[in-house]
Structure formats: structure tokens, C-alpha cells
Design a protein that fits this description.
Polyketide cyclase / dehydrase and lipid transport; about 80 residues; globular; single chain
Length: about 80
């Protein structure tokens, strides 16, 4: 299975970068991939293990991803659970 990895230095505190990365109200300002993101289920968006998000890319690809690890302010990891085109 291919692994994609990238890194960049950002001159902000880790907790602020993490907060922005998980704030879907500003996600479209910096995310070149996502066209729309919608939490699946009840309530507001919250990064929590098992939480699922419907994602539509700017190229039209649709998928559902699920949080598998959430450790603020260090990381939030997801896995794709379904794909539709």
C-alpha cells in the first residue's frame, strides 16, 4: 500500500496549527483538496475516534473517512472507509 508523507515548517505554536487544521469553518481557506466536508451523524463537527466525515474533493471524488486517532495538539489520523466517484 502506498504511503504519502509530506512536511513543512510553520511559524506558529503547535496548538494553534492543530486547532486551525481541525476547524472546518476555515478549512477551505488552506485545504487544496476538499470542496465540501460534512460530519455524519448527530451534532456539530468534533474530531473524535470513530467520528465520520463525508468528503467531496474539488475534482468530484467522494469518500467517507473515519478518525482513528485523535491526540490534540499533536495529531488527528483518519482512514478512508468508503469511496464513491
Amino acid at each position: 500500500m502506498p504511503i504519502i508523507e509530506a512536511s513543512i515548517g510553520i511559524g506558529l505554536p503547535r496548538d494553534e496549527v492543530y486547532r486551525i487544521s481541525q476547524d472546518y469553518s476555515v478549512r477551505y481557506d488552506w485545504d487544496p483538496f476538499s470542496d465540501s466536508l460534512k460530519m455524519i451523524g448527530d451534532g456539530e463537527y468534533s474530531a473524535c475516534i470513530g467520528g465520520q466525515v463525508s468528503v467531496r474533493s474539488k475534482l468530484g471524488m467522494e469518500m467517507v473517512v473515519e478518525f482513528v486517532q485523535v491526540k490534540p495538539p499533536k495529531n488527528a489520523a483518519i482512514k478512508m472507509v468508503s469511496l464513491g466517484i
